């Protein structure tokens, strides 16, 4: 039988689903900012909490109808996008050229239209498009496929008292070792 989660742990689960960042989730769930990194990491190792996160993610995926395949299809659409798939219509809009992949318009991150009037009074429309960032998209796809695994290094700063105690302890060990060597030598 699964152990019950505390209210703060349940809040952590909800907050973790926001951005999948354990440190930020711990802070939003009410854990100390100073220890949030360690707390978040520790919480993710708890079997019952991990199970609750997995269930919440499954419910969200079912509710939103987003699957790993859906995500990968969108990533592939962006990765295969090419500026040659688009042309400017006479009105300055954006048209897909023949042979452009279905849904290619979803690879467009922004579009700007500029209307310029020349010295003869003729109107000229210029359309500028920007596609979604391919390196970031490629990174996401690689992470999903396990080709790219990021390693995060955690650095913990010790308080001055702890550093002093560690230094004193190290010095004491050195003195003990020196006394033992002296006894063996005599």
Task: Please tag this protein with its features.
186 residues, alpha+beta, Arc Repressor Mutant, subunit A, two-stranded antiparallel ribbon
Protein model, in words:
It is a single chain. The radius of gyration is 29 Å and the shape is elongated. A hairpin with a 5-residue loop joins strand 3 (108-117) and strand 4. It contains 7 helices and 4 strands. With 186 residues, the protein is α+β, with helices and mostly antiparallel strands. Strands 1-2 form a two-stranded antiparallel ribbon. The protein has a two-stranded antiparallel sheet with strand order 3-4. The longest helix is centred in the last third of the chain and has 26 residues, at 160-185. Helix 1 (7-19) crosses helix 2 (22-28) and helix 1 crosses helix 4 (47-64). The N and C termini lie far apart (64 Å).
Strand content: 5-15%
Mean pLDDT: 86
* Structural class designation: alpha+beta
Order of secondary-structure elements: HHHHHEEEEHH
The number of E-state strands comes to 4
Major sheet characteristics: 2 strands, antiparallel
Helix content: 40-55%
Number of helices: 7
Radius of gyration: 29 Å
Unreliable stretches (pLDDT < 50, length at least 5) are: none
Main β-sheet, spatial strand arrangement: 1-2
Number of domains: 2
Q: Which outline best applies?
A: elongated
Give the terminus-to-terminus CA distance: 64 Å
């Amino acid at each position: 039988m699964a152990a019950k989660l505390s209210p703060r742990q349940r809040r952590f689960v909800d907050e973790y689903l926001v951005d999948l960042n354990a440190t930020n989730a711990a802070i939003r769930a009410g854990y100390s900012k100073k220890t949030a990194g360690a707390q978040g990491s520790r919480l993710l190792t708890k079997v019952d909490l991990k199970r609750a996160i997995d269930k919440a993610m499954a419910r969200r995926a079912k509710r939103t109808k987003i699957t790993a395949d859906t995500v990968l299809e969108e990533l592939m659409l962006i990765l295969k996008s090419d500026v040659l798939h688009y042309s400017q219509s006479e009105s300055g809009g954006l048209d897909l050229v023949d042979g452009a992949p279905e849904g290619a318009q979803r690879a467009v991150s922004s579009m700007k239209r500029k209307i310029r009037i020349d010295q003869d009074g003729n109107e000229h429309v210029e359309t500028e498009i920007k596609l979604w960032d391919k390196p970031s998209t490629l990174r996401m796809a690689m992470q999903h496929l396990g080709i790219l695994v990021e390693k995060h290094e955690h650095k913990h700063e010790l308080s001055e008292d702890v550093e002093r105690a560690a230094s004193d302890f190290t010095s004491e060990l050195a003195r003990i070792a020196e006394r033992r060597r002296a006894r063996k030598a005599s």
